[in-house]
UniProtKB/TrEMBL annotation:
This is Phage capsid-like C-terminal domain-containing protein. Gene3D superfamilies: Major capsid protein gp5. It comes from Desulfotomaculum copahuensis. It is found in: Virion. Residues 93-374 form the Phage capsid-like C-terminal domain. Pfam families: Phage_capsid (PF05065). It comes from the Bacteria.
Amino acid sequence: MTLEELKALMKETVQAELAPVLETQRKYAHLLDGNGQQQTQPKELEPGIRLARFAKVMALAKNDVERAAKIAKTMYDDPVLIKALGEGTPSDGGYLVPEGFSQEIIPLLQAQAVIRKIGARVVPMSGNVMNMPRQTAASMASYIGENTNIQVSQPAFGNLKLSAKKLAALVPISNDLIRDASTQADQFVRDDIITALALKGDWAALYGTGTGDEPLGLKNTPDVEIRSVGAAIDGDILASVVGTLMQANVAFLRPGWIFNGIMWSKIYNLKTATGQYLFREEMNQGKLLGYPYQVSNQIPVANDANKTTDVFFGDWAEFMIGENMRIAVDASTEAAYVVGGNLVSAYSLDQTIIRAIERHDFGARQPKAFIVLTDVYTA
């Protein structure tokens, strides 16, 4: 064997030995940077987790966004979060959470807020005011004879004006959870923020007075029928509600009921004269008289002899939620909050108060599409 042949053989042998190593290097090259260090890839997280992280690091940084970015790098090493903190926008309610983080919250609110789950329409508001036309009277048709003039009629239109209102939720969080970088702690903070916004939003959509900075709720909306029952609920009362809206030519695009847990129990236990349950089978499927229902503890029970309460029914496609789609967060360890009429200090309990502000408004585009039963006995 000549020297040249020996060199060629050695080269082939070395290449054969290196081939598996080179293939492995090629396969995983996308994970390595120029220094051979593994790159940190943004992790896929549950919706709303980065909103919670944003709030937590802002709390730890005492609302100093530059310091918050440094804390986020140490605590989470989340490039998306760190970049978002660098782009944080101050507002009158704290720092605006990046739009992408805020939009993740909307489906979560949809899952918790009864008024959203039942089918209310969410309409993005680009500004603080939105005007929505609504038809208040329809055109009329008529039969005519030969050489008879056609009677002219015109539809009438009104306007639903939505003006963004600030919903501020105060969420007390243990400082142990604020300092905890685990996903479970992030989930807890996220869920507390969402629950606070959802519950207050439900109350305002149903009972808001429309005065001051409060939205106008359905029960206080002019032209929504308020029907006083003055008795316990029964099948005839429920059927009459549905029949009234059918007679009014309501479209029934997203019809549904909203009542509280006490009323759910009363309806669930209604029986025929022979002892058969009237609605149990379909209520186990989430429907009443063929229409979906939702249960909300935001519907109160009066402290009177009959423990009266309300029942809402309507076509919720005609109930509008104008939403600004941005959430502002702020945090304080010195703030106080009220529980049961008593002022509680966050500092003394080693808590941080996270304030989340959402801007929205509510309105019934067609008030005739709703009926509110009042004075319904539960005792």
